[in-house]
Amino acid sequence: MKILVALKQVPDTETTIRLAADGRSLDLGDVKWITSPYDENALEEALRLKEALGAEVTAVAVGGEKVRPVLQNALALGAQEAVRLAAEPTDDPLAIAQALAGFARDRGFDLILLGNKGFGGDNSAVGPMLAELLGLAQANVVTRLELLDGRFRAEREGALPEVVTAQRGLNEPRYANLKGIMAAKKKTITEVDAVAAAPQVVVAALSLPPARAQGRRLEGAPAAQAAELLGLLRTEAKLI
Fold it and tell me: Residue 77, Cβ neighbours under 10 Å: how many?
């Protein structure tokens, strides 16, 4: 069995996000990059199938040199092969799906795994688009996956080959150990030119959410606080 896992590099969720001067992009100067958490679940599922069924796991990422750490981490965790599809960074889901489809087509993958969505973009579109481009069955937001005799069982059934987008809760992603990290440094990341149309998504503007108003501390006895809170919910928040 041959499994392809598509990975996306995203800013660490603890990174402070700042807007760039152009107002249409992010200031990436101090950003720490990680593998998108949902993609970690997809990779973990592939590695478990490797251990259980002897599957061959290939990790792939679309982008520039900066995606190398994501692929190196996949090798450290146990993927046998890593491929970078060289292309200009883009958040256009169709362009990414086209690049992945161009690589995966005719390479005999039985299963293609992706995260349900990528942190940052959150459009949940690459997996379904990839499946449509390849003409494969698909299952999305999967929290449990079982492979049967030439079939799969998730929230619905279909025939292999298929494309699956992983949801958090599908598994608990592993961490790379020192042995895997050192071995990954000696492995080669294959580079293939991405085949995709020019991105059609244009970012017109970005803005940070408004600052939250400072909280209010209620004083007095519990009964008085409850009465005041009830009044605030009715007159200010207008929730009741």
Answer: 23
Average pLDDT of the chain, as a whole number: 91
Closest CA to 162 of 144, 143, 125, 135: 135
Distances (CA, A) of 156 to 161, 180, 232: 14, 35, 47
The neighbouring-strand residues paired with 1 are: none
Q: How far apart are CA 7 and CA 217, in angstroms?
A: 45
Count Cβ atoms within 10 A of the Cβ of residue 74 and give its class: 0-12 exposed, 13-18 middle, 19 or more buried: buried
Find the radius of gyration of the CA atoms of the chain.
Answer: 22
CB burial of residue 158 (10 Å; 0-12, 13-18, 19+): middle
The answer to pTM > 0.90 is: no
Q: Which helix (H) or strand (E) holds 157?
A: strand 157-159
Contact 41, 170 (CB under 8 A): yes
Q: Is 129 helix (H, G, I), strand (E, B) or coil?
A: helix
Q: Catalogue all structural domains in the chain, each as residue range(s) with its CATH number.
A: 2-193 (3.40.50.620)
What is the per-residue pLDDT for 180? Answer: 97
State pLDDT tens for residues 103-160.
999 999 999 999 998 887 768 899 999 999 999 999 999 989 999 888 988 877 678 9
Q: Which of 106, 127, 99 is nearest to 194 (CA)?
A: 99
Confidence class for position 212, pLDDT limits 50, 70, 90: confident
